[in-house]
Structure formats: structure tokens, C-alpha cells
From TrEMBL:
Catalysed conversion reaction: 5-amino-6-(5-phospho-D-ribitylamino)uracil + NADP(+) = 5-amino-6-(5-phospho-D-ribosylamino)uracil + NADPH + H(+); 2,5-diamino-6-hydroxy-4-(5-phosphoribosylamino)-pyrimidine + H2O + H(+) = 5-amino-6-(5-phospho-D-ribosylamino)uracil + NH4(+)
Upper lineage: Bacteria, Pseudomonadati, Pseudomonadota, Alphaproteobacteria, Rhodobacterales
Classification via CDD domains: Riboflavin_deaminase-reductase
Organism, as annotated: Thetidibacter halocola
Gene (UniProt): ribD
Full protein name: Riboflavin biosynthesis protein RibD
E.C. numbers: 3.5.4.26, 1.1.1.193
């Protein structure tokens, strides 16, 4: 199962709105087939593994990282494919919460005489499929908030200079993070100040994540990197209901996809933004700031994982804080997370924090 989970992770960032599933088929102690969900969500992991196994799948055991699908979509159900191949046993960690499956895949297998074992490495599979489950159950993607900070929590100097606070090793890790998410998201202030590309670089030719900008007024540079490359790499912009027709037409003309979102307290409501992205199919979003967007997500308890790169530099109180105002008056009101991992990356410290 550990091997199947590792295979499934190869699909992260490339298979939305489907889950990134892995499958290993074992016969007489030997792996005869391996597969993972392919880019765009098809073919499924089981189909890939069965094709590789061929007739060796008969009487074999299939290790699958999520309940095999039971519904007819663009392809026939994987549960039926496993039955037709003569697989004797299916081991899976979790039931699929998608109402089109929700136990029906396991039921089909058992009805056909296939032995089903579930619960194996369930916690690991739950973590890998968290974004898929959140989209199905809550209508929003999994949110990873990434911060690159000075020792005193700043993301830029008072003049706005921010390149580079962290070193090249940390930046390479960030590009790897981008590659494993469906989308990279920033606020309008960051898009205006930094003119970012938000692409994966340094990993050869890879499928690029969707680039999302949260900008209430849609007042973004029409000659910036995002605008110039919107035809090549998708640009999605979440904006308020009161943007000008001229700006809307301009961005759509450049190839951007626009989402009108609700307001809360004069700002874009983060729940509305994430639900729009979830409805569009995204399951995993990497938010790279800025401070106000980070604060709004934290305030609404919408950050599922916080990844922090801390550099050995001090910028002082006049620097730009990594997280905007939260309006916290007491420690009991502050968001608290649990440290999951910490290690050095080059000259920087890298830590991962999750909900308690």
C-alpha cells in the first residue's frame, strides 16, 4: 500500500477534479502491474495497472489507494474492470465519499466474490486525498499557505523589496510545491507589486498549475507577466461584483477566466473565493500571499496546512508583515497549529504546520 500511495502522489496537481490514486497489482509475491491516475484524471490508476498486468491480474491482489469507482462516466467503473480481470482481492484504505461511489465500489466487488480489505494505511491516504474529500464534502479545495519570512516575520522591506529573502534551495522546494498543487494563488497586491510568473521552473517540461489572483476590483497590470502569458498558462481571477465592464472585457480578451465572488466587510469573502475554485474543479491550492489574503484565510480557518520558510535576516518593524491584521485581542482567539515537520533547507529553516 505504501508503494501505491507513492505512485498516486505522482498525479498530484495534474488530475483535478479527480483524486490522485495509485494502484499496485501483486501476484504470488511479485508486482505484475502498477498505475496512477493520468493527467486530466483519465485513465484511472486501476485501468493503468490492469493493462500492465494483463492476464497476470487473475487471482491477484490489487492495492488501491481509494475505493474503486462504481459509476459510469467517461470510462466504465474501475470496480467492474477489476472484476472482469479476475482479481481475487482488493485492498484499499478508504471509502470514496463521492456520492456516486460511497461504498458502491466495495459492494460491487463483494457481490462478485472479490475479497475486500479496507482501512490499510487509512491516515496516510486521508492526507493524500484531503483536497478531493474537501471538494466533495465542503465544496472547496485544500489550502496550503506558504510564507517566506525574515526572522521577525516580514516578507519585504518597507520599500517593498522582497527578492530574495530565502535562498535558492528554499525556492526550489517552493517550485516543487507548486508542481504538486492544482493552482497557485496570490492576492492582487502581490500581483501588482511583484509581477510574478507563478509558474513551476527548474523541473524541465512540466504541466503548469492554474494561476489564481484574488483582486476585488480587477485592477491588475494589463502588461504584466500574468496578462502576457494568459494564453499559455491558465490565469483565473476572483473579483468582486462591482468591477468595470472594460476591465472584465480586457482580461477575458487576454484569455483569463473570471469568477465573480461575494464580499464580506468590503473585501472578497474567502469562503466565496474557495467555493468558486472548488466548483471549477480545483482540489489543491497553494496560496503564496500576500499578507491580507493570508490573514483572511487564517481568520476564517481555511488554511489546512501552513508551510513556512524562515531566513536568517531581520527587516525590522518597518518591514511588510507576512500576515495582515487579524483583529486578535486575546491569545485565546489566535489560530493555533501543530508542528508536523521541521528541517533545514540550505541556510533557511523549513517548517510545516497543520491544524491541531
Amino acid at each position: 500500500m505504501a508503494h501505491a500511495l507513492a505512485l498516486g502522489r505522482r498525479g498530484m496537481g495534474h488530475v483535478w477534479p479527480n483524486p490522485a490514486v495509485g494502484c499496485v497489482i501483486v501476484s504470488r509475491g511479485r508486482i505484475v502491474g502498477r498505475g496512477w491516475t493520468q493527467p486530466g484524471g483519465r485513465p484511472h490508476a486501476e485501468t493503468e495497472a490492469l493493462a500492465q498486468a494483463g492476464t497476470a491480474a487473475r487471482n491477484a491482489t490489487a492495492y488501491v489507494t481509494l475505493e474503486p469507482c462504481a459509476h459510469h462516466g467517461k470510462t466504465p467503473p474501475c470496480a467492474e474492470a477489476l472484476i472482469a480481470a479476475g482479481v481475487a482481492r482488493v485492498v484499499a484504505p478508504l471509502e470514496d465519499s463521492d456520492p456516486r461511489v460511497a461504498g458502491q465500489g466495495f459492494a460491487l466487488l463483494r457481490a462478485a466474490g472479490v475479497e475486500v480489505t479496507n482501512g490499510v494505511m487509512a491516515a496516510e491516504a486521508q492526507a493524500d486525498h484531503a483536497g478531493f474529500f474537501l471538494r466533495v464534502e465542503q465544496g472547496r479545495p485544500f489550502v496550503t499557505l506558504k510564507l517566506a519570512l525574515s526572522l521577525d516575520g516580514r516578507i519585504a522591506t518597507a520599500s517593498g523589496e522582497s527578492r530574495w529573502i530565502t535562498g535558492p534551495e528554499a525556492r526550489r522546494v517552493v517550485h516543487g510545491l507548486r508542481a504538486r498543487h492544482d493552482a497557485v494563488m496570490v492576492g492582487g497586491g502581490t500581483a501588482r507589486a511583484d509581477d510574478p510568473a507563478l509558474t513551476v521552473r527548474g523541473f524541465g517540461t512540466v504541466s503548469q498549475p492554474v494561476r489564481v489572483v484574488v483582486s476585488r476590483l480587477l485592477d491588475l497590470p494589463l502588461m504584466g507577466q500574468l496578462a502576457r502569458t494568459a494564453q499559455e498558462v491558465p490565469v483565473w481571477i476572483c473579483h468582486g461584483p462591482d468591477v468595470s465592464t472594460e476591465l472584465r472585457d480586457a482580461w477575458q480578451g487576454l484569455g483569463a477566466r473570471l469568477f465573480s465572488c461575494a464580499l464580506a466587510g468590503g473585501r472578497l469573502a474567502p469562503q466565496s473565493v474557495l467555493h468558486a475554485l472548488g466548483e471549477a474543479g480545483l482540489t489543491r491550492v497553494l496560496c503564496e500571499g500576500g499578507g491580507q489574503l493570508a490573514a483572511s484565510l487564517l481568520a476564517e480557518d481555511l488554511v489546512d496546512e501552513l508551510q513556512v520558510f524562515s531566513a536568517g535576516v531581520v527587516l525590522g518593524a518597518e518591514g511588510v508583515p507576512g500576515i495582515g491584521a487579524l483583529g486578535i485581542g486575546a491569545l485565546s482567539e489566535a489560530p493555533r497549529l501543530a508542528l508536523a515537520e521541521q528541517r533545514g533547507v540550505g541556510n533557511d529553516m523549513y517548517s510545516i504546520w497543520r491544524r491541531n
